Amino acid sequence: MHEMKRVVVTGMGAVTPLGNSVQETWQAARNGVSGIGPLTRFDCTNFSAKTAAEVKQFDLSNYMKVNDRHRMDRFAQYAVAASLMAVNDAEISIGKDVPYERVGVWFGTAIGGIESFEESCRSLQEGGYTNLYPFATTTVICNMASSQVSIALGAKGINACTVLSCASGANAIGDAFRAIQRGEADVMIAGGSEASLTPLGIGAFCAMGAISSNPDPKTACRPFDKQRDGLVMGEGAGALVLESLDSALKREARIYGEIVGYATVGDAYHITSPAPGGEGSVRAMELALQESKLAKKDIDYINAHGTSTVYNDKFETQALKTFLQEHAYCVPISSTKSMTGHMMGAAGAVEAIFSLLAIYTGIIPPTINLENADPDCDLDYVPNLAREKKVKTALSNALGFGGHNTSLIFQAI
């Protein structure tokens, strides 16, 4: 059996409601700025949701030609742009520093090309199948983020797509990590993307009663707060360059951190509600910690799933208490969704970036809008203001409809 390779992160890219780069996004997050505003993508007069975390003033021409852009749904466009940023940030030349065949792509999405799907449905109803765009299929299917990234970069290694609801981005990173660990690739571009701020995307969450009906963008998303009334949907993408430690050292690359633990498990309980007490999340965290060979007291920061829904925040708090035991009240925890909104399949990837930047910069981003803590949510959620703290080890959690629970552990190197 081959010795498992160590895996590090050498590049990061992001398109988020907080900014059109990692730098802009991080600056806003550390300053507690919200990316949530009025929902402008369509007329939401008859929708209970009036707010969303939209990507703003993003210039695609920096990342792709017009013809290529027209053949991609928005979620794939975001994925390509974030991936190109990440590769540029890593200062890696694919084909020169590492063979094309040893570079893979693993991207996650929860919903895929829903905007293109809705457009195709309208075209079909208006003029039959001959009225459909020739690329109607390939703009909709979920694997197109990973495929378009692969084409844009010339990456000929593993090319895979993870669809695990809101855990998709985190799982894609974890699965890419495994591929390098096993020696199946030297470099992986991994992350998640989403662009589901559409009538169907938003309307379905309204019908479910999971989305905030608070019309005030500033206070609509308030994880762990007693007044929370649901999530706020966001969009965008996060991409990471994962690389074997050997490859990174050979290139003398800057290293943001090492991935030292990953686990994903199922609740086998309910399609939308977490299991009572968050028992699935507890098992994921335990397994990830076991792989890392660290102790619970070694965890310096946790980026929580923290959706601002009643059940998630309560059960996630219970899970963290069960997992950390007496250490639970000593660890700073934040929900960056308070600023980005819930980026669905992109959430886990962007939150992995936040976790790595907490390690790299020694700054923990806050949970904004936390004014009146729910008595059931009584841990240290870094309310409203970022905090300076040396972070060596960070844990990032992602949960998804269907009972998916994913944990990633990052460490300074």
Automatic annotation (TrEMBL):
It catalyses: (9Z)-hexadecenoyl-[ACP] + malonyl-[ACP] + H(+) = 3-oxo-(11Z)-octadecenoyl-[ACP] + holo-[ACP] + CO2; a fatty acyl-[ACP] + malonyl-[ACP] + H(+) = a 3-oxoacyl-[ACP] + holo-[ACP] + CO2. It is an enzyme of class 2 (transferase). One of its GO terms (biological process) is fatty acid elongation. PROSITE patterns: KS3_2 (PS52004). Pathway: Lipid metabolism; fatty acid biosynthesis. Its EC number is 2.3.1.179. It comes from Aneurinibacillus danicus. This is 3-oxoacyl-[acyl-carrier-protein] synthase 2. The lineage of its organism: Bacteria, Bacillati, Bacillota, Bacilli, Bacillales. Keywords: Acyltransferase, Fatty acid biosynthesis, Fatty acid metabolism, Lipid biosynthesis, Lipid metabolism, Transferase. One of its GO terms (cellular component) is cytosol. InterPro entries: 3-oxoacyl-ACP_synth-2, Beta-ketoacyl_synthase, Ketoacyl_synth_C, Ketoacyl_synth_N, PKS_Beta-ketoAc_synthase_dom, Thiolase-like. Belongs to the thiolase-like superfamily. Beta-ketoacyl-ACP synthases family. Residues 4-412 form the Ketosynthase family 3 (KS3) domain. Pfam families: ketoacyl-synt, Ketoacyl-synt_C. The active site is at C166. Involved in the type II fatty acid elongation cycle. Catalyzes the elongation of a wide range of acyl-ACP by the addition of two carbons from malonyl-ACP to an acyl acceptor. Can efficiently catalyze the conversion of palmitoleoyl-ACP (cis-hexadec-9-enoyl-ACP) to cis-vaccenoyl-ACP (cis-octadec-11-enoyl-ACP), an essential step in the thermal regulation of fatty acid composition. NCBIfam families: fabF, PRK07314.1. GO terms for molecular function: 3-oxoacyl-[acyl-carrier-protein] synthase activity. The keyword Lipid metabolism applies.
